[in-house]
Amino acid sequence: MANIEAARDSVERGERAESVWSRLGYYALSHPLGLVGGLIMLVFVFAAVFADFITVYSPITTNSAISLLPPGHGHPLGADAMGRDIYSRIVFGARISLAVGLGSTLLGSVFGVALGLASGYLGGWVDLVIQRIVDVLQAVPLLVLALVMAASLGPALGNTIVAIAIPLVPYTARVIRSNTLALREQPFVEAARAVGMSEFRIAVRHVLPNTVAPLIVIATAQLGAAILTEASLSFLGLGVPEPHPSWGRMLSESAAEYVRVAPWLVIFPGVAISLAVFGTNLFGDALRDILDPRLRD
Amino acid sequence: MGSYLIRRFFLMLLTLFGISVLVFVMLRLVPGNIADILFDSAGMVDVADKAKLEHDLGIDRPIIVQYADWIGGLAHGDLGYSYVSEKPAIEEILPRIPITAKLAGLALLFSILFGVPLGVISAVRQNTALDYLLRVVSLSGLSMPAFWLGLLILMAFVHYFDSIPIYTDPPKGFWDALWLYSVPAAAVGFRSSALVMRLTRSSMLEVLRQDYIRTARAKGASDRNVNYHHALRNALLPVVTVIGIEAAFLMGGLIVTETVFNIPGIARFLVEAIRWRDYPIVQNLVMFIAAVAVLINFLIDLLYAALDPRIRYAG
């Protein structure tokens, strides 16, 4: 009892909160590349959230007077063929990129976790059927599946999210299933069963929370993949439709014909995509080191 | 080994069947078929004409009949007709396969040539400046979209040589072809070599921690002998798997790169067919791509089982 009271006292004094911050600080210092990745991600989230406040021009309004304007002259990154400000389009593009990236990763994770948990925990024919579905989805290369899905669902922001989310499902399902298989045999599951807990409750309350670490690791990796896939789909003209500014589509509009006359149209959107994905990958690597001790070097 | 082989083979067939159903159903969910597109672009609205066109193309029949028709045709090499060119689909697809295969093979070759040695160096020199540099470079390889890298390469060519290495005429002779394919293959292969490098590195680090490596060192084996003879051979096992998966998944990079460099392979053709809702082309192409992916995975599994006795006897 004395221990419990002491712990409660320390919580009330805010010591626990302090230790969380000090642990975060420790991780940040021991993973400098992860810290850099986290900061890059913060910049993109900031741009996406406050896009309206950090831009002067609208990302959609055209102005033929400044068509193909080089960087400078009040337009720091220049303007495209239709006279739209590139800086504004990149900042607002962060919003689309982040929305599609987060949306499809979340959606894919929800389905992946549900399938993986059911497959691993229930076993038997449920496992067999789900694993065959996973096999099928995983056999088609990600971009090919996303392309066919995007084309069949039609051009819309929500459809792009679904088209990218479905190909991500099998990877999450695999990881969650193998974790669930290991967890299922743990003594705490046996104990929960011994006190008469229902199987559903054991799966959701005891097994599921223990898969959070690998889920976070794989979801972070998928966030980068989702952003890249959105860019590729939009580049091919099958992604997020107009008038949403999308980094991938900015490159398709400018592609080969502007390589010669307006290199800024090619350079800046590509830098934005690469930096955003690079930040997520750096952050994801560090997160995996911290959360998955088996892979720690 | 025999029963393992048979089991894996039947699973492969089951997967291929699943893919055919998935692709077929997905394409039929499309709002607006080829008849709609043709009529929209021609500005015609006569309902009877449209119904006749749908009947001629066979897309007014029940979906099950259409599916059975397709699979039945596949069995004896009849892939149907392209809606757009009205030529047999097989004549459209076959000549494009070698182009994409060459590009993919070259990209894979780059990824092994660069990925494996750099991964080993990075692991052996763990936590040195060189290791950090290689890790950052490989991670940027995974972060850059292949089409952007392609565009940057084009830009560099325009700037320095005032020429664009895109595909206009079929290459004349071996060296011309090698040159024409190398540039886009490098754009696709950069990502793969980054992946192979990262995997070789982590696999090497894992193996270097094993007891038998310590034993080898204790017995006085040289660093060189331990790293390349004892460690690398075991570390390459998982790398073989990833190279196999990557071989199938190169497709994503090929799709955008063939588009950028204007290469008339199957990857760019797939995008065009999707835009045109040319079902016979799309479904056969996706089926072909998936079949190649599944087959490569099957072969890799066999290779893996042959290389690693633990797998052969566990399953």
Structure description:
The complex is a heterodimer of chains A (297) and B (315). Chain A has twelve helices and no strands. Chain A is mostly helical and 297 residues long. In chain A, helix 3 crosses helix 12. The model of chain A has no long low-confidence stretch (mean pLDDT 83). By secondary structure, chain B is mostly helical. In chain B, 80% of the residues lie in helices and 0% in strands. Chain B has 14 helices and no strands. The model of chain B has no long low-confidence stretch (mean pLDDT 81).
Overall pLDDT of chain B, averaged? Answer: 81
- Low-confidence sequence ranges of chain A: none
Order of helices and strands of chain B: HHHHHHHHHHHHHH
**Number of helix segments of chain A?**
12
**Poorly predicted residue ranges of chain B:** none
Class by helix and strand content of chain A? Answer: mainly alpha
Helix content of chain A: over 70%
Helical residue percent band of chain B? over 70%
Mean pLDDT of chain A: 83
Q: Per the principal axes of the C-alpha atoms, what is the gross shape of chain A?
A: elongated
Strand content of chain B: under 5%
Radius of gyration of chain B: 24 Å
> Helical segment tally of chain B?
14
Strand % of chain A is: under 5%
Strand count, sense and barrel status of the largest sheet of chain B are: none
Amino- and carboxy-terminal Cα gap of chain A: 40 Å
| Ends apart, CA distance between termini of chain B | 9 Å
Subunit organisation of the chains: heterodimer
Chain-wise SSE layout:
The complex is a heterodimer of chains A (297) and B (315).
Chain A: H1 2-12, H2 15-30, H3 32-49, H4 86-122, H5 124-139, H6 142-153, H7 157-184, H8 187-194, H9 199-207, H10 212-235, H11 247-261, H12 263-291
Helix pairs in contact in A: 3-4, 3-12, 4-5, 4-7, 4-10, 5-7, 6-7, 7-10, 8-9, 10-11, 10-12, 11-12
Chain B: H1 2-28, H2 34-42, H3 47-57, H4 63-75, H5 89-93, H6 97-124, H7 129-143, H8 146-161, H9 173-208, H10 211-218, H11 223-261, H12 266-275, H13 279-307, H14 309-314
